[in-house]
Amino acid sequence: MPDKETCNNKDDDCDTSIDEDFPVGGPCGTDIGECSAGTYSCDKTTGGLKCDGEVKPGVEKCDNLDNDCDGKTDEGNPEAR
Ligand SMILES: [Ca+2]
Ligand SMILES: [Ca+2]
Ligand SMILES: [Ca+2]
Ligand SMILES: [Ca+2]
């Protein structure tokens, strides 16, 4: 039995395709609001995927920006009334 394909830049299951089960180089994360999408790459320590260059959601602040990336700007009236 060949090994199961893991994300390591090697062809573990010997079908001549390397990491074919993983969307390496594809987009990950979200582009909404103040967030930016990143790119999938292999995490060789876990054999899974990691997301490079992603900007993750923060805490909503009253600044006319969508800090927590839910598509709504300054929802819930943060910080002030
Ligand atoms: Ca592999
Ligand atoms: Ca393979
Ligand atoms: Ca928001
Ligand atoms: Ca905000």
Largest sheet: 3 strands, antiparallel
What is the number of beta strands? 3
Number of helices: 0
The helical percent reads under 10%
Structural class: mainly beta
Which outline best applies? Answer: rod-shaped
> Hey, roughly how much beta strand do the residues contain?
15-25%
Strand order of the largest sheet: 1-2-3
Would you mind describing this structure in some detail?
The structure is a single chain. This protein is an all-beta fold. It has a domain at 23-70. Helix content is 0%, strand content 16%. It is built from no helices and three strands. Strands 1-2-3 form a three-stranded antiparallel sheet, with no helix packed on it. The termini are far apart. 6% of the residues are buried. The mean pLDDT is 94. The structure holds calcium ion (4 copies). One calcium ion binds at residues 60-61, 63, 65, 67, 73-74.
Tags for this entry?
single chain, 81 residues, mainly beta, 3-stranded antiparallel β-sheet, rod-shaped, binds calcium ion
Topology:
Blueprint (H helix, E strand, L loop, with lengths): L26 E2 L9 E6 L4 E5 L29
Antiparallel strand pairs: 1-2, 2-3
The chain binds calcium ion (4 copies).
The site of one calcium ion (CA) has 7 residues, from loops.
Compact description:
The protein contains no helices and three strands.
